[in-house]
Amino acid sequence: MQKKSISKRKYNELIKSSVEAISEYNILFLPDLAAYLPISRTEFYNAELDIAPEVQAAIEKQRSLAKCALTQKWLKSDSPTLNIALYKLICTQEERLALAGKTDDEEDFTETRRAYLESLELMGEKNESD
């Protein structure tokens, strides 16, 4: 399928419309943006609006605003689920591992895995000799 190019003027108009729609309709995902533009989804991708730096920056800004709004709600919430979710976002790696009941010691994990695999091999050899 041949890619249909659009004029520079139309491209710039679509970029402007895209950035405005992202802000006005709180768009967080690129596929949703095409619905607010006067072109089809195929034209949206063929014009490479999805990779335009201005569009990418506007989506990222909108996502950041949404994250900040949610974080503020979670911070004020009395819900244990939201409190845990927020804590997981802001805690250190060590605290996150402690919450999950894990350690950061990769050597222990590797040694345990090696011993487990050896025991499986021994069980396999034992079963073959029976």
Order of helices and strands: HHHHHHH
What is the CA-atom radius of gyration, in angstroms? Answer: 26 Å
Shape by Cα distribution: elongated
Beta-strand percentage range: under 5%
Q: What integer is the average pLDDT?
A: 87
- State the share of residues found in helices, binned by percent: over 70%
Q: Major sheet, described briefly?
A: none
SS class: mainly alpha
| Number of helices in the DSSP assignment | 7
Report the end-to-end length measured between terminal Cα atoms. 63 Å
| Low-confidence sequence ranges | none
Number of separate strands: 0
The count of domains is 2
Brief descriptors of the model:
mainly alpha; 2 domains; 7 helices; elongated
